Amino acid sequence: MTRRQDQPRGGRGRGRPERDDHARRQGASDRGAGERALLYGFHTVREALRAPRRELLRLFATAAAAERLADEIAARKVETRIVEAEDIARRLPAEAVHQGLLLEARPLAPLDLSDLPQSAFVLALDQVTDPHNVGAIIRTAAAFGLDAIVTTERHSPELSGTLAKSASGGLEHVAIITVVNLARALDELGDLGFQRVGLDSEGPASLDETALSRPLVLALGAEGKGLRRLTRERCDTLARIDLPGPIKSLNVSNACAAALTIARRRLAE
């Protein structure tokens, strides 16, 4: 599939386009929780303690959990309250698996699309709303060393709590850029020189056979609905993931892992 002629891509490294300043800001603003993000679980809290960009407020920990993270707690000098596990559980949803740790922290600082490096590799999520799936995608993105994930203010989960636990610390390593309108964000990324590839099970080409180059954005749609029409129209290429088995579709977080594996290989060729 050729690039759309009415959506020319700007030259790489050229001047940045004008932006709607209200159209995008960092998604780690913990929507719905004001100025405080609640992070729980061992890996999530450990990575937040190790991340210099996260401003910490206070840590609630059992004695055993605090001992496991003694070095990280001492290094960050975070206020720590030793409590019983039941005290932590009362501060969280009933199903939360906190592992004896609850960290209150500030949302992460805002980031703009134009702040991305010229060789960036990012994901764009088109109304993927399940916090477990988004958390798993963030964890995978961190494992693959992606620069950012672009998502929307509406139709996306809060970036704390269940999502942060599912991300297993990935929130501290992958920037989350929240935009008002994903189609306009893809327009801007195109103007910034990004190749825009939409993952579509009915795509005309296999991702394995698609030439990829940096800067690159891969767009993923919600399970069942896939990419919306305006998102598809902003992509330079639509590509599918070919699967050898009898099941031809994957959970969106598993599809993300497969796509990143293929994309990393194609970029290295």
Please describe what this structure looks like.
By secondary structure, the protein is of the alpha/beta class. The protein folds into 2 domains: 70 residues, 2-Layer Sandwich (60s Ribosomal Protein L30, Chain: A), CATH 3.30.1330; 156 residues, Alpha/beta knot. It has 9 helices and 12 strands. The strands form 2 sheets. The protein has an 8-stranded mixed sheet with strand order 1-8-7-6-11-9-12-10, with helices on both faces. Helix 6 links the parallel strand 7 and strand 8. It is elongated, with a radius of gyration of 20 Å. The two termini are 20 Å apart. The N terminus is likely disordered.
What's the arrangement of secondary structure elements?
Layout: E1 24-26, E2 37-40, H1 42-50, E3 56-61, H2 63-68, H3 70-76, E4 79-82, H4 85-90, E5 101-105, E6 121-126, H5 131-143, E7 148-152, H6 161-167, E8 175-179, H7 182-191, E9 195-199, E10 205-206, E11 216-221, H8 229-234, E12 237-240, H9 252-268
Parallel strand pairs: 3-4, 6-7, 6-11, 7-8, 9-11, 9-12, 10-12
Antiparallel strand pairs: 1-8, 2-5, 3-5
Helix pairs in contact: 5-6, 5-9
